[in-house]
Amino acid sequence: MSDDIRALSNEEIKEKIASLQQLITERTEQEVRLAKEEIMRIAREHNIRVSFQESPVVRKSSRVNSSSGKVYVNPLNSTETWQGRGKRPGWLKSLLDHGHTLDEYLKV
């Protein structure tokens, strides 16, 4: 790890992490958009009808620290998370209904 990063405060590091996570999100969204455009181009060339089923986008909280610090992650879609506050999301409720435990999905 570079010395200039080691010199940063914890808060500055958290800000950099948040900024980098946002950059990753933006790049991923752009890659998906470009891939869809390419799929549509190829489909048109071959006279194939294509439609995309959009999945709901789960935005991470802009807060770096949550009060509990616990984050539960959907094993099928790591962008879907739950911090243990509010109503449990459907994906987690379904897993729990099938005998799984919260600890299985706790991000370490």
Summarize the structure.
The protein has helices at 3-6, 10-45, 90-97; strands at 72-74, 77-82. It has 108 residues and is mainly alpha-helical. The protein has two domains: 1-55, no CATH class; 67-108, H-NS DNA Binding Protein, CATH 4.10.430.
Helical percent range?
40-55%
Question: What's the structural domain tally?
Answer: 2
The main sheet orders its strands as: 1-2
SSE series: HHEEH
Q: For this entry, what is the oligomeric state of its chains?
A: single chain
What structural class is derived from the secondary structure elements?
mainly alpha
Radius of gyration: 19 Å
Write up what this structure looks like.
The chain is mainly α. The protein folds into two domains: 1-55, no CATH class; 67-108, Irregular (H-NS DNA Binding Protein). It has helices at 3-6, 10-45, 90-97; strands spanning 72-74, 77-82. Strands 1-2 form a two-stranded antiparallel ribbon. Strand 1 (72-74) and strand 2 (77-82) form a beta hairpin. The chain is flat, with a radius of gyration of 19 Å.
List the helices and strands and how they pair.
Layout: H1 3-6, H2 10-45, E1 72-74, E2 77-82, H3 90-97
Antiparallel strand pairs: 1-2
Keywords:
single chain, 108 residues, mainly alpha, H-NS DNA Binding Protein, 2 domains, two-stranded antiparallel ribbon
